[in-house]
């Protein structure tokens, strides 16, 4: 059975992106393209944590609200949040109002600051866990990997929360550490080209 379907332009794409309208632009312009911006990497780790137990459609629909609530995921600003700030966010109907997940973002912002001080940047740290493509399973057939397990374990050791191996694997798919677009998907070749030109931060 094919893992792709024709998109609106007739070109084949990953089946999952054709289920709802908002998935198509996300798939075509974001998912899988390599990222080295610390704020975007931190945002995605946070949003994947919020997605736990929910659908990505729910989170994507609220993404701009999350960005407003968390100051564009500026982890230096979030690190200064107090219990008062957490209580304020629990009243924000535009985001997922889950105390544990909100508190995890605040905690992870503080851990991100520590990590940047130790490693130079969040990007330099994360990209150290980029797996060898030859070791990866066929696209979209796994929910964890040796690399996502290793990154999850190291983040937890550093005190991060809501960063289990499945959450981290979804993060790696989205941020371009792996190209998990289906074989034959028109965007897979674009991502491959972007990854080839990408220089991971060191």
Automatic annotation (TrEMBL):
InterPro entries: Adenine_glyco, DNA-3mA_glycosylase, DNA_glycosylase. Pfam families: Adenine_glyco. PANTHER family: DNA-3-METHYLADENINE GLYCOSYLASE 1, DNA-3-METHYLADENINE GLYCOSYLASE I. This is DNA-3-methyladenine glycosylase I. It comes from Novosphingobium beihaiensis. The lineage of its organism: Bacteria, Pseudomonadati, Pseudomonadota, Alphaproteobacteria, Sphingomonadales.
